[in-house]
Design goal:
26% of the residues lie in helices and 16% in strands. By secondary structure, the chain is an alpha/beta fold. Bound molecules: 2-acetamido-2-deoxy-beta-D-glucopyranose (NAG) (6 copies). One of its GO terms (cellular component) is membrane.
Length: 433
């Protein structure tokens, strides 16, 4: 029944998607990369910048055209309780005492842009919350137990820079028991592999922001020199070629679809999204995301994997009073109240694509015995505007000038921070599933 309500909600949104398509056409699409070279661990972080000018409308206040009531939004909650089991995604953040599982001093794998402690973020309250499901207790990630259960296994995190953000939390948590050994990285540190020797566990992160084949044209500063070319019918071989070697695979995507792109099918141009001044049909990015997810799940089901597949839903940013490119900020230090933040238009569209596609795939999976799990972090992330680096994506940003104008990151997450809870949930899904 729940699934039906997602579906009907999905179809009811079609007029809304059309409107959005039109409004997106009206928006300019210059992609600017705003990053500093201060990074001390990871060179040239060009992919961090998922943000496009369109994201301006991606958060409260929702443009009046698109105002949604909280009740409506509830239809998009991905309840997973047909069996009467506890829905671990339905809960609230409650204060937690004690120290974080790791800090900038005990984990050496934190990317400088997400190392909020190391970059001098003065408040620490954002660390002291835990996710508490309404109907059951969610144990904290237990690295020792997890490693024991993952002997001789291989894990892969496939997706974009938020996927990598999540992966770093995972590596940091595990590294409290045994430090990871870096066994592979490419030049840009976008594809990387670690090994935990005592447990013979390997963990890979695979850069594939669209999950499908995509040509991205960016200069050394990350400025787009041409539209991205996305092949909607071809999955990215970066991950498909390794797929059968992994025991646990976590996929996620989303934000890159918002960027302007030309969409290909069968090697010919089918249309585009936000490609001003070009004579292509604007298809809207939801079409591309949907086709690619459908292909992804078809691929998975047709390969009849022994591995466990987890799909993580897309996550909201929390820019206030502006966007990435117009000086938006995020200065909050405590979680928001439920309902205080609504999912912005663009995130809603991503969600309206992914929930029905995942639901359809899970029905299929349950018939064929494929292990497919949903990691639905969207609602619980929506109420954590306090968990982003903000100005502390830079090393002591106000050291020289208290009023310095610095680029805020209200999209990625501080490490440690609320993103660590994603791994509490992940452990629960994997070990109890
Ligand atoms: C971690 O952060 C604290 C607080 O900013 C800082 O004093 C310390 O030097 C940092 N540790 C490392 C290893 O960077
Ligand atoms: C480590 O695990 C891999 C599978 O991930 C397996 O092929 C290999 O034999 C294991 N190595 C040892 C020493 O057990
Ligand atoms: C990385 O950035 C440095 C400047 O900080 C530049 O000299 C170098 O060419 C860049 N490397 C790549 C691969 O973009
Ligand atoms: C792709 O092209 C081939 C031959 O050019 C054709 O047989 C096939 O039906 C096309 N597929 C799609 C999805 O258009
Ligand atoms: C745009 O494409 C249509 C149909 O493909 C064509 O009729 C029209 O002349 C094109 N317009 C321009 C300005 O190229
Ligand atoms: C946004 O702007 C309003 C009015 O200028 C101000 O009261 C509020 O504190 C700002 N919010 C943030 C997060 O900067």
């Amino acid at each position: 029944m729940k699934q039906n309500s997602w579906r009907s909600a999905y179809y009811n949104q079609n007029h809304f998607v059309l409107k959005l398509g039109i409004s997106i056409l009206l928006v300019g699409f210059g992609f600017r990369l705003l990053f500093s070279h201060s990074s001390n661990v990871i060179p040239n972080e060009t992919d961090n910048i998922l943000i496009t000018p369109v994201v301006e409308n991606d958060l409260n206040p929702v443009p009046s055209d698109f105002v949604e009531s909280p009740k409506e939004f509830n239809q998009f909650q991905s309840k997973d309780d047909e069996s009467g089991e506890c829905d671990i995604f339905d809960g609230e953040w409650i204060p937690r005492s004690g120290s974080p599982a790791y800090t900038n001093n005990t984990c050496r794998w934190i990317e400088s842009h997400q190392n909020c402690m190391g970059n001098g973020r003065p408040d620490t309250g954002y660390i002291d919350w835990k996710w508490s499901p309404k109907a059951c207790e969610l144990p904290r990630f237990d690295a020792k137990k997890f490693l024991e259960r993952m002997r001789d296994k291989s894990w892969a995190f496939v997706g974009d820079s938020i996927t990598r953000n999540h992966l770093q939390s995972f590596i940091c948590l595990l590294s409290q028991v045994e430090d990871a050994v870096d066994i592979y990285h490419d030049e840009a540190y976008k594809n990387r592999k670690w090994h935990f020797p005592t447990y013979n566990l390997t963990v890979s992160v695979v850069w594939s922001p669209f999950l499908a084949k995509a040509e991205i044209f960016e200069d050394v500063n990350g400025v787009s020199t041409s539209e991205i070319e996305v092949h909607m019918d071809v999955l990215d071989k970066t991950w498909t070629e390794q797929f059968s070697t992994w025991d646990y695979i976590l996929f996620s995507s989303g934000k890159w679809f918002i960027k302007s792109a030309i969409y290909y099918e069968n090697n010919s141009i089918l249309g585009c999204h936000g490609c001003e001044g070009k004579n292509y049909t604007d298809l809207g990015f939801n079409i591309a995301y949907q086709k690619i997810l459908k292909n992804l799940f078809d691929f998975i089901m047709n390969s009849n994997p022994k591995s466990m597949i987890i799909y993580r839903t897309s996550t909201p940013d929390h820019f206030e009073n502006g966007s990435w490119s117009t000086g938006g900020s995020c200065d909050r230090t405590v979680p928001a109240k439920e309902g205080e933040f609504e999912l912005g238009v663009l995130n809603r569209i991503l969600r309206e694509v992914e929930l029905p596609e995942i639901s359809r795939a899970r029905e299929w999976a349950s018939e064929t015995g494929v292990k497919l799990k949903l990691l639905d972090v969207t609602p619980l992330s929506l109420v954590r505007p306090d968990g982003h680096p903000g100005p502390y994506r830079h090393f002591y940003p106000f050291a020289k000038d208290k009023n310095a104008k610095v680029q805020y990151d209200c999209l990625h997450w501080c490490l440690p921070g609320p993103i660590d809870s994603w791994n509490d949930l992940l452990m629960n899904l994997v070990l109890n599933g």
